[in-house]
Amino acid sequence: MSAAHASPGSVVYAEALADAVEAEGGKALLQDVGSVVAAFTETWEQDAILRRYFLATEVRGDDKRAAMDKLVEGRFPKLLGNFLRLLLRRGRLSLVPEIGAAFREILDERLGRVPVTITTAVAVPEADFQSWKNAIRGVVDGEAVVEHVVKPEILAGAVIRIGDRIVDGSARRRLSELHTRIIERGMQRHALQS
What we know:
By secondary structure, the protein is α+β, with helices and mostly antiparallel strands. It is built from 7 helices and 4 strands. It has 2 domains: 3-109, Peroxidase, domain 1 (Orthogonal Bundle); 112-193. Helix content is 63%, strand content 13%. Helix 6 (126-139) links the parallel strand 1 and strand 2. Helix 3 runs antiparallel to helix 4 (78-89).
């Protein structure tokens, strides 16, 4: 989920966390906390038991607070642990995925990172992927953080997303354009024959 699609409250929480972390330890701590936030967000999204426990209305607040203390002590930077406790107290843990996505975008902006996603229909050899990464890094302002995603539904070619821009060189897009042109030509012929 992109921060643009996150609720305004999620973005406010993410910005507050980023401001507090950066004020305490600068960009280095911001990057370290970013890694922990990403890992926790992924765990939250994948672990249904964890989510159900902390979101359950039938579990007492004291029990949830004790479980959160055990979860964060010694595993999370103090600021992040306190932040998660705050979300628990305010009943906002359900926003963790949105806050995590917003936090990642805030980090990218503050650290000068540009997220790049290369989507192909099949896995590509590592040498080709490295070549693509080097080419992209040569044209992107900032630090390109390149990720490779495999989606067979694009059929062939590649879709490259650089920040908010998308270059779609997939066979699926080309087939869709061809389909549209065939329909348009058919409609034109039908109109001329009428």
